[in-house]
């Protein structure tokens, strides 16, 4: 079921190995839910405080409700390469209507609305969501209310003010996707992509602030009839930990192809994923001088090899770009170009060949020394090695 509380976050290893910030953010992973926390203090929420208008919003939404409390099914664009169907045991899911090539753009979607994150004020979170919904068309509200949700209290009286607030907030928390510095938004079509761990997910999304849209690309070749899966969080952790996280925050027990492996194979997968996470942490220590350039690039190659063995292909564009940065800092221009070419290839798969990340590699490939000037690094010259070294 499409019931993840989703927020975009940085790729594992993104920008941290070299301490820089790229212009766009790739988001194949979601962080933990951005749920307003309870407690004795008032909740901090997006936008202005609309608590005073809760009753008016309640009356407004009560007038919108259909007699049987149902909303019209969401109509999807006709040109999508997938269809949304009922999947036994999972609720709704997205199935490829034709073969989809690796790197192909699957979807471009503008948000129903975005709640900015720059300003936080005191107020009622449910009222904030209702106020955003008030500006939508009936068709757009249908798309919102057709989304799944978890952790909805059973004691609320239907059509009461608190019921409408809590329902809107539950749907938002379950389906919201981060849009980097722009805030957190609702993308109802992307929300139909179910979760897969590690090698199981085959599609990733990224927010393009300049376009005000979310784009989804095929990480792998996807066959007609195969389910499109993205990932709701960083799954480089053991199966038991992944499942517990998903049960706690998303309300289901994962049965993806990786979580369904026999115990022996699952343990091998867990070991690879834990080793990859450990190596990413080690790779980041280069910026503090704990590794030489060659040692850092050797770690990057080891991560890549484990990803090949595991079938975990996400984050490769950024990994290669970070290796190019290391190579440039050590004046290994041949390695800089080779890693930049690899980065551009994988950025193209994950984020699109027209993405800022992919295009940013053009200059580095043409003039590797340009990246050394950009790093401002004073590392000793060193032959760090190319991807295939």
UniProtKB/TrEMBL annotation:
UniProt keywords, alphabetically: Membrane, Transmembrane, Transmembrane helix
Annotated TM spans: 44-61
Gene3D superfamilies: SET domain, Tetratricopeptide repeat domain
Protein's UniProt keywords contain Transmembrane helix: yes
Region of interest (Disordered), ranges: 1-40
Record domain SET: where: 80-233
Basic and acidic residues: bias regions: 17-32
PANTHER family found in the cross-reference section: SET DOMAIN-CONTAINING PROTEIN 5 (PTHR47332:SF4)
Protein name as annotated: SET domain-containing protein
Organism: Phanerochaete sordida
